[in-house]
Design a protein that fits this description.
With 194 residues, the chain is an all-alpha fold. It is 75% helix and 0% strand. 22% of the residues are buried.
Amino acid sequence: MTLIVEKIARAMAIVGGLVLTTLIILSSLSILGRGLNTLGHSEWLNNVSESIATSLVSTGVGPIAGDFELVEAGVAFVVFAFLPICQLYGAHAKVDIFTSKLPQKLQDFLGAFWEMLFAVVMVVICWRLFEGAQNKLSYGETTFILQFPIWWAYAASFVAALVAALVAVYCAGARCVEMLTGRDFLPRAQGVSE
C-alpha cells in the first residue's frame, strides 16, 4: 500500500513542479516585458536612439496581463501538490530540541499524535476548499483582469488538497501502527546531523 501512496504522492509532486516551473517562466517573461517596456519609454534610450525606443515600444512588449492572477491561483495548487510527498517522508520542518531526548516510545507517540492532527487539519482544509469552490461557482465570480472563474483555482487546489488529505490519513494510520508494533512502515525523515 505504501508503494501506491508513494507513487501518487510523487505524481502530485511532479505535477506541482511542472506548474511551478510554468509560473516561474510566466513571471520571468512578464518581468522581462515590463522591463523592456520601461526601457522603451525611458528618457535615456530616447536620447540615445529615438528610433530604437519607438521600435521597442511599437512591438507591444510589456508585462503579461493578469500574470499575478495566474500566479496566485497556481501557487495555491502547488503548495497542496507538494504536501503529499512531504508528509509521506516526514519532511516538514520541525524543531525537536526537547523531544529528541525523550524515550523512543514517547517520541513515537508524539509523532503519531502530530500525524493524526495534521490529517484532521488537511481534511478540514479539503472540506473548506470544496465549499469555497461551490460558493464561487454558484456566484459566478471571476478574476478582475483575465475574467477566468475563481472556482477553477479552488477546484484545482481542492484536488491537490484531497490527495494531501488522503496521504495524511494514510500516514497517520501507518504511524499509529508503527507506534503499536514497533515496525517501520513509512520512510523516516533525514534531519540535520548533530
